[in-house]
Amino acid sequence: MVQQKIKVLHIIKSLGRGGAEMLLPETLKVHDKSRFEFHYGYFLPWKNQMVSAIESAGGTVLRWTANNNFQILTKSATIQKYILANSIDLVHCHLPWAGFVGRIIHKTSGIPVIYTEHNKQERYHRITFWLNKLTFNWQNQVLAVSEDVSNSIKKNINPKVPVATLLNGVNTKSFMRDSMAGNRVRHELGIPSEALVVGTVAVFRFQKRLVEWVRVMHTVCQNDPLIFGIIVGDGPLKRDIQREVAAAGLSDRVFLVGLKEDVKPWLSAMDIYMMSSVFEGLPIALLEAMSTGCAIATTDAGGIKELVRDEVDGLSVNVDNWQSLADCLGRLRDPNLRQSLAIAARNRVVQSFSLKAMVGQLESVYSEIATLHR
Fold first, then answer.
1. Alpha helices, DSSP H, located in the chain
2. Distance of CA 122 to the CA centre of its chain
């Protein structure tokens, strides 16, 4: 007898290039499609960069157009019709506003809902925080991307539904250093072959503190003409970052290259991956950089401290002491230290943060919940 596939509907606010969004096609590539069928629904029409990647990996993508957060909540009846028409077994929501609409569906229909929390509750706007607190028990299972996030849920919400930590993972076979591709990037930007390249991949939001990132680069570039920077990404603070680069006189040293569909060549061009974030869950881009063999200099924001052990897998500073990242970059000019930490970073994700292990745990959750509710 052929076993019936478990049908999962992911709901997320957008399919832009954020960490949670980019994880969806990566996990889909690893999932056992002989046992599971995946659908993906989103709301913001102008944030659709991940659609083709999900479809190429075998997922079905649909959009329920909404132009703001409160319009998302009005889509619950439409989504519920889709669930019934397509015999969806369970819904997996990501990030608060998708979570809210999923919980409404669960409350009104009993359809099983899983929610992945990527951030600490303290970091949300007060409206988001209170809506989260009000509706949190209208779901079956919560997955936190780090212990830091899990502890924040328990402290601020004290939920009745189970909360488990499921650490983000990275496809370590896909994210490997490609020196030829990295050298092409350097050549295109006019970066000397002997230069030290510091980079990051981020959505240009407050939490990433990219203006501060540029200030760190300004400090180190004053004393070393062979340090260059690459920032991959885009977002609402783009003009602020551009102004900071210009004010620091770094327009020919720090390159803002925009969004990139494939970040692997850009990570391969980086010797050091630097993060100056004020808060994080467990950042996917950092996992990818470590897997690609970049040496790491970072603040210890949120779940990063569970990933990067200072002096073991990279160099880490207190989240309030981001200026000390300049000292980390100074130390990483030593090629021996840089190489040893790059190797350690790669080993760290291979051993403890593989996408295969993450997907295996996720499929176990899906199977358990779907079996209970069939």
1. 19-30, 51-56, 69-73, 76-85, 96-109, 126-135, 147-156, 179-189, 210-221, 238-247, 264-269, 284-291, 304-307, 325-331, 335-352, 355-373
2. 19
- Assign residue 293 a region: left if phi > 0, alpha if psi is -120 to 50, beta otherwise? left
| Residue 207 DSSP label | G
d(CA 180, CA 189): 15
φ and ψ at 303, to 5 degrees?
-70, -10
Q: What are phi and psi of 318, to 5 degrees?
A: -60, 140
pLDDT tens per residue, range 273-304: 999 999 898 899 999 999 999 999 999 998 89
Q: Residue 34 and residue 55: Cα distance in Å, rounded?
A: 17
What are the boundaries of each domain within the chain?
A: 6-169+354-373, 179-352
Pairing of strands 6-12, 227-234: unpaired
- Amino acid at position 6, single letter: I
d(CA 205, CA 277): 10
Whether residue 231 contacts residue 213, with contact meaning beta carbons closer than 8 Å, is answered with: yes
Report yes or no: 258 and 266 within 8 Å, Cβ to Cβ: no
Whole-number average pLDDT of the chain: 94
Please provide residue 24's backbone torsions phi and psi, each rounded to the nearest 5 degrees: -60, -50
- Does the domain formed by 179-352 have CATH 3.40.50.2000? yes
Q: Which residues pair with 117 in a beta bridge?
A: 144
**Structure tokens of 138?**
């209208």
User: What is the C-alpha separation between 263 and 344, in angstroms, rounded?
Assistant: 21
CA dihedral defined by 246, 249, 251, 257, rounded to 10 degrees? Answer: -70
User: 6-169+354-373 maps to which CATH number?
Assistant: 3.40.50.2000
| Model confidence pLDDT, tens digit, residues 215-228 | 999 999 998 999 99
DSSP state of 322: G
pLDDT tens for residues 139-158?
999 999 989 999 999 999 99
Quickly state the pLDDT bin for 2 (edges 50, 70, 90): low
The yes-or-no verdict on residue 104 having pLDDT over 70 is yes
Report the distance separating Cα 347 and Cα 327, nearest Å.
24
